[in-house]
Write a structure and sequence with these properties.
Radius of gyration: 27 Å
CATH topology of the largest domain: Spore Coat Polysaccharide Biosynthesis Protein SpsA, Chain A
Number of strands: 17
Mean pLDDT: 90
CATH architecture of the largest domain: Alpha-Beta Complex
Order of helices and strands: EEEHEHEHEHEEEEHHEHEEEHHHHEHEE
Structural class: alpha/beta
CATH superfamily of the largest domain: Spore Coat Polysaccharide Biosynthesis Protein SpsA, Chain A
Number of domains: 2
Strand content: 25-35%
Amino acid sequence: MHTVAVILAAGSGTRMQSTINKHLLPLAGKPVIVHTLEAFQQCAAVDTIVLVTSAGNLTAYQALVAEYGITKVARIVLGGDTRQASAYNGLCATDDCDIVLFHDGARPLIAQREIEAVIHDVVEYGSAVVAVPAKDTTVRVRKGFIEAHLDRSTLWQVQTPQGFKAAIIKEAYAAAMRDGVQSTDDTGLVTRLGGAVRITLGSYANIKITTPEDLAIAEVLLGKVDGRRGGEMFYVGFGQDSHHFVDEGDDKPLVLGGVVIPGERGLKGNSDADVILHAVFNALTQAVGGRSIGYYCDKLCLEDGITDSREYLKIPLRMLAEKNCVINNLGISIEGRRPRIEPWADAIKQSLAQVLGIDESKIGINATSGENLTAFGRGEGIQVFAIVSLCQRISDF
């Protein structure tokens, strides 16, 4: 489906209290509008950009599009006296397309995952808008006094992008023009015709630059957490590993999560076969785009004779450090008829916390016996699944 993003940047921005239009103010080394355009330029789900501007900024925007290589900008059109008029001018410039997104040029922190999510919801529901739940108590005021407290659980703060199948939004604008109706955003024009608009969960970081304080906040957000492009702020990895038990009579110890479990047969493998640490290794490397444990550790084990899996984990931990990531939390699920995990769960958590350099409270462990349903449930070995979430490291303020 062909998707066009209409970027609205024709407003004067009088509340910014600056002689320079707010879209052209510097933010982390680039004008605000460039950050916004780059978000859509880098989003593979967006095919074309229509930029809406004022006559006074037309030349400046043309120069910025060329300087920063915003190749998806197909047209730059002039806005109108109101946001609705500007959006309509942008809509008229979209030509043939399947989906239209409207986005405020003064929302430079929009993330690619949010753009992609609203497009997904448009495909499924026809109309969608990025929004976040209201955090503050909200009241209705009359003549300077509180008239009523509103139910916060039903209130959401609408942001952009707002997305629509082209036929839906074109019908809504045609009806508004015919009826002389004005709305503060595009969803209002759709709902007045009885259309349903899906809420796409957004981020509180997707602020609109309106006042000098907003610009300062955006500067901090961009400087501390660069998570606005493709989800760099948050990673998830899933890892799995399994091993057979050694044969009867083999005195190899059982090691789980760096803890030796006495009185149990060990697991087959050239290393200590610590199935928990191997699953955690795979989850960590997967989260940062890496490979499985064998790719990195076969040489360490077979040629260098290193069998302690705690040494192997230094590899993904270095990878995390290079990407400036920290472990947010770790979940481990163990399947095996023996040993019984619960008596050792705390010791395993302590060992993992020490190896990974995180607090024990960030580690969750559960286990199932398998009840004879699988090879692990029949006592032939142990299988472990691990899931990890990573956050980009945030520097101290």
